[in-house]
Amino acid sequence: MIRLIFISLLITTSAKVFSEPEPSFYDQRQRGWFWHEPEPEPEIKPKEKSNPDSPLPPQESKSQSMPGQLQALNTQWLKDNLEVLMEKAIDNPTKENIAAYAYANRLLMDISTRFSVKMKEFGDLEVELQESNRRPMSSFALDEFHAERDKVVKSVMDDLKSKTHLWFFFSSTCPYCMKQIPVLQEFQARTGIPILAISIDGGTLPGLEQFKTVYDEGNRVSRMFNVRVTPTMHLVDNNQKKPLPLPEGLSDLPQLESRVLLASRQAGLITEDSYQLAKSVRDITVFKNKEGEIMVDKAKLESDPGYLADVLRQRLSEIESLKASTSVRAVLN
């Protein structure tokens, strides 16, 4: 009888052992005083090694090109594949890999050449895009352009000589000032604009006999107009008695001439048309009246491939006053 009871208890205990899961670490309250006992690491099952030779499962297989499917060898394909072909040829320089990269690179050059030839052909016949509108390219036309510009510059300077004069700040110990004097002599002879030489140290230099010279006692004028280096020049509006600073330092004759024209334009002493015609390279752009943004029809821009060119072509063609001989005659008159 006792033996039967023992066997029954043994069977019941074994059933509980196999049916109930082992409690977690934190559920074992009776072991709480083992505060130093670390939490057991979870068992990590090793991953099954995949066989590289075995085909991928259907859901992971990469898309493959269908037989007879064509691929355009265009700029997008080259952008996606040229670097890949290059790296493949570098890592494994077989004849096939090198040939693939070399011919792909040749394809890129040929696409670029085709584009540049077509672009040049288009530009040669598109009047509004020709750079000769800004400044002639051929020596034959350039000679005429210079002759026309010289007439405009002379007319503008003849007008400025009665409205302005030039201040020349110098020091008797400044070697750059000595080199500036012959340039100023030629400038005054060509333009007739009077020059006032202002000595900031009380000394003088050879060649100043052609100019009226004054001494800046105590450097009052130099400090008033923030003269920091020599030579420094200012164009002065006779009517408003307002000096217009020119860039500091030594300037050759073309630089001095262009800076006087720019300062005169900004001060309103000459018109915008006169200024543009007096420049060696004229500003002919799609922007008019100093606009910083061009507004166009969004729907037409997206649907009509020729709309953008038509808009910009029209804006360029409207700027005829800068290249028409009638404008030059208007400035000269």
Can you offer a commentary on this structure?
With 333 residues, the chain is of the alpha/beta class. Among the domains are: 75-110, no CATH class; 162-278, 3-Layer(aba) Sandwich (Glutaredoxin), CATH 3.40.30.10; 295-332, no CATH class. The chain has 11 helices and 5 strands, in the order ααααβαββαββααααα. It has helices at residues 2-19, 75-91, 95-125, 139-160, 175-191, 220-224, 253-266, 272-278, 298-303, 307-317, 325-332, and strands at residues 164-170, 195-199, 212-215, 232-237, 242-245. The protein has a 5-stranded mixed beta sheet with strand order 3-2-1-4-5, with helices on one face. β4 and β5 form a beta hairpin. α2 (75-91) runs antiparallel to α3 (95-125) and α4 (139-160) packs across α8. The protein is elongated. Residues 15-19, 52-62 and 328-333 have low confidence and may be disordered.
